[in-house]
Each structure stands twice: as structure tokens, then as C-alpha cells.
Specification:
Layout lengths: L1 H10 L3 H13 L6 H27 L2 H10 L6 H11 L1
């Protein structure tokens, strides 16, 4: 059910809600299940999209967008990239 919630949120372009459901799913510490595998794929899709967004915002000098992304991505492997891009603008 966490995967379904994440997928629905991501389809609606709600990255923050999707990540909350994904992280909740990861914390259940279950491996090998189809839903977990799909959750991992969705996580990577979201992270790839986030990296592209961070690059674009950094190039545009979108400080507010980077601040929002850093907050949304907290606890992920891309959060550091958002913070670093934001630091370059300050």
C-alpha cells in the first residue's frame, strides 16, 4: 500500500508525498517482494528527476526552488546535491 500511495503521488507530481511513502516502505525492512522492488525503481526515477531539476534550478539561479527541493529531499541521497547547488548561489 505504501508503494501504491507513492506511485499515485508521483503521478500527480507530488514528490514530497511520494518520498514519504517510499521511505516508510523502506523502513519496513522487507526485501525480495515485488512491491519493494517497484518501490526501489520508483525511488530511482524520482531521484533522477530531482537531479535534473536541481541542475536546471542551479543554472537558472532559482534559490527558492533549490531550498524547497533540499527540504523535500531530506533523508535521500540527492539531498546533499540540492544543498550544494544552493550553497553555490549564496
Amino acid at each position: 500500500k505504501n508503494y501504491d500511495a507513492a506511485k499515485t503521488a508521483w503521478d500527480a507530481k507530488d514528490r514530497a508525498t511520494a518520498l514519504k511513502s517510499i521511505i516508510k516502505n523502506f523502513k519496513e525492512d522487507m526485501v525480495g517482494l515485488a512491491a519493494q522492488e517497484e518501490t526501489i525503481r520508483l525511488y530511482h526515477e524520482i531521484m533522477d528527476a530531482a537531479r535534473a531539476d536541481i541542475t536546471a534550478m542551479g543554472e537558472k539561479g532559482d534559490k527558492a526552488g533549490l531550498e524547497k527541493a533540499a527540504k523535500e529531499l531530506k533523508g535521500t541521497d540527492v539531498a546533499k546535491e540540492a544543498s550544494e547547488a544552493l550553497a553555490k548561489l549564496k
